[in-house]
Design a protein that fits this description.
The protein has helices at about 5-15, 20-35, 45-60, 65-75. The protein has one domain (about 15-78). It is built from 4 helices and no strands.
Length: about 80
Amino acid sequence: MMTKILRDLVQRAESWPQNAQEELAQLALEIEAELKAGYYRATPDDLLGIDRGLHDADEGKFASEEQVEAVFAKHKRI
């Protein structure tokens, strides 16, 4: 059964330009293929990105939770 959100989106998409409709259809086909496969297979580019992220984490290149909270506190508007 189609959800109301999806049904409404599909109806609105009928008025979109053809290239936008094709892009939406392609995304839906990719989701469907992943669901049928039952698992996700990372691409070589995905794996390189994961490796870079893990390396950067090992090098301490990410902000700590305390640093992130300090930035949010500094810019928080009351």
